[in-house]
Amino acid sequence: MNNSLEIIGARIKSLRESSGLTQSNVANYLHVDQSLVSMVEKGKRALTADMLDKLAALFGTRVSALMEPEMKVKPLSFALRASEIGEDDLDAISAINRIALNSHFMTQLLEGEHANG
Questions:
Q1: Does residue 46 contact residue 40 with C-beta atoms inside 8 Å?
Q2: Which residue in 36, 48, 80, 99 has the most C-beta neighbors within 10 A?
């Protein structure tokens, strides 16, 4: 992999597969055609910043983790089969992940304040 599009695409594919989602699931969640997801995963197309943010939330990570292939990320496993996961389910998972990430960030800030003062 020699360019950032390929790195991001490979990372998205890896996280998608680890989460048990199909390209179609991700495409429906992002409101795009499945062929765009395929092209992104192959490093041939870029996503908008908003789409990257939505995917990061869906996978329970920060956007920076999508760009760093060496960063360890353990996506949540879904209890439903990928064919049964709807857009509303993915929206709910994304919202929960955003809350969890924000909570983790706030905890880190508070721990930093206690350590400094």
A1: yes
A2: 36
